[in-house]
Each structure stands twice: as structure tokens, then as C-alpha cells.
UniProtKB/TrEMBL annotation:
This is Regulator of G-protein signaling 16. Regulates G protein-coupled receptor signaling cascades. Inhibits signal transduction by increasing the GTPase activity of G protein alpha subunits, thereby driving them into their inactive GDP-bound form. Plays an important role in the phototransduction cascade by regulating the lifetime and effective concentration of activated transducin alpha. May regulate extra and intracellular mitogenic signals. Keywords: GTPase activation, Lipoprotein, Membrane, Palmitate, Phosphoprotein, Signal, Signal transduction inhibitor. SUPFAM superfamilies: Regulator of G-protein signaling, RGS.
Amino acid sequence: MSCWMPGCPALSMCRGLAALPITCLERAKDLKTRLGILLHKPELGHKAGSSSKLQLGSRRRDSSREVLEWRESFDQLLKSKSGVNAFHTFLKTEFSEENLDFWLACEDFKKTRSKTKLASKANRIFEEFVQSEAPREVNIDHETREITRKNLSGATSACFNEAQAKTRTLMEKDSYPRFLKSASYQDMSKQAASRGASKRSHT
């Protein structure tokens, strides 16, 4: 609407707006935007909240099942990322986490495809875990240590197989049963079992 008459209301309104500081106009626009967001937010928030609750519920069910599966076999524990983390935390209390760290390093080593990287990784693993008086020396016999040393001369993805198998057996026979009897695992399995029972009662 345009008006050239001196007493026109539109003209006085335009002059009034022009006299306002720019910051006031910017704040008015900002308020309008925020009001628009707030009007739509409850509906969006409700949808997002519902889906996140569903995802959290399914994650809890999955993790509960996993925790109970750890006691079925050592393999089941090693297949689970959260199981490996829980076992590693337990081994730290016994000051024997180097056995699991060595096993994990060997698993990662087997995935290496580059021959150059294979050789450098092999030397690094040997120096850290296998050689006599290594900073994180694993508990393997002298014969296995020497076999592994010889394997380094022509490093392949299988050069730590024997040492890794010995360490795995040691963990399975020694540390794993103690982990299952530990207070931390007993608490986790009780919580997992009660969540499972609660789910069954609601179905």
C-alpha cells in the first residue's frame, strides 16, 4: 500500500518503522522464527522421543542377550565387542590384560594385506609382547617364542598363530572361568536376566 497524502496512516507507519533501530527489526524477525519453531517442535519432539525409546529398548534387549551368551563359551565372549571390553576391564584387575591385547593385535594383524606393513607390524608385535623381557610380555613357553622369532624372517599373516593359540588357551582355561565368577559379571548377568524376565512378563 502506498500513499502520498500527509495524514495517511500507512505513511506514518512506514516512517515509524524506518525510525526503529536495525537491531529491533532483527530481534522481531528472530522472535518470529523462534515462535515458528516452537509451534512445530512438540510434534517433532514426540516422534523423535518415541523412536529413540524404541531403539534404546531394542539395544537393551540385544545387550541383555549378549551378556547371558558370554557364559556359554569363550568364543561367544570374544565375538562380542562389549564382552571383550568387559573381559579386558576384568583382566586389568588381575594385571594380565596383555594376553587379551596380544590376541587382539594378532587378529588385527591377520587382516593386513600389504607385505611391507605385515613385516613392520610383525616386528612391533613381537617386540611388545613376545620377545623375552618385552614391555608387555605374554606367558608363553620358550619353544613357542623361538618358533615365532623364526617366523618373522618371512612374515606372513600366520606367523603368530601358535603364540596366539597358546595365549588364547591360557585365557580360556585360567582367566575366563574367574571372569564368570567375578562380582562384576555376576551383577551384569543378574541385571540381564531380570530385564529378560520383565520383557517376558509384558508379552
